[in-house]
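Cross-check.
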Amino acid sequence: MTAVAASRPRPNLLRPRVSRVRVVQLLGLAGFLTLWEVLGSPQAYLWSTPTRVARDFWILFTERNGLTLVFNTVSSLIVGLSIALPAGVLIGTLLGRFRTFGVMFEPYFAAFYSVPRVAFVPLMVVWFGIGREFIVAAVVAAVTIMIVFSTAAGVRETRRVYTEVATSLRITGWAFFAKVLVPGSIPYIATGTRLGVQRGLVAVIVGEFLIGLPGIGRMLRESRVEMFTDRMYTTAFVAMLVGIGLILLTGVLERRFSRWRPQVF
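Predicted model, tokenized:
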């Protein structure tokens, strides 16, 4: 037994492990950037190139106010989320918990969800002006509806699964709400928030683009007016990085609040 154990090769702990999928992804990215560099160089004013975008990205965050613009966009998103989250959870809980409330108001929320947000822009300008309040209101309108439907679905599923257990344990009234409905709906709320954050980021950028408030949207607007192609690509990559960061953050929160749920697969 000792000889067999000694003959087995020992794993090299110092050797970094890179999955084959990751290698293929990196090779694909390298190939795409190389192709973009080669094909974009003859008409850089139209297509730009990765090297030009990287140089403009460096200038934006070292010599210009790139961090301030990103902060303006993210701060508006956070303010809107701080309003949309409790409002969406409250309305969604009422929709899922009380059948009469759901029958009365859920069709209107569904109709609101189906209408393109741009249709409300003129009214929102009249109601909130062209200041930062307009951006926050756009985030609230975009995010709240996602949280409402996800919370309602979570409350209904929790009632379906745990009502009989709670009744057998004589958990009713406020205790049923605090100990069963809310914990059971948290994963659904986290999922709705993760989806709503992306819609909120789009609302902020589009709002800044339309009314010219300082932020990522205004940076995109100015680059379009000046026909600064490098800055257009840089702005797109900045928005992509902010979106990826938000996805990772909300994903961590979603896994954190869903940790108590049993793993089926």
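DSSP finds eleven helices and no strands in the chain. Residues 173-211 form the longest helix (39 residues). Passed to J.P. for a second look.
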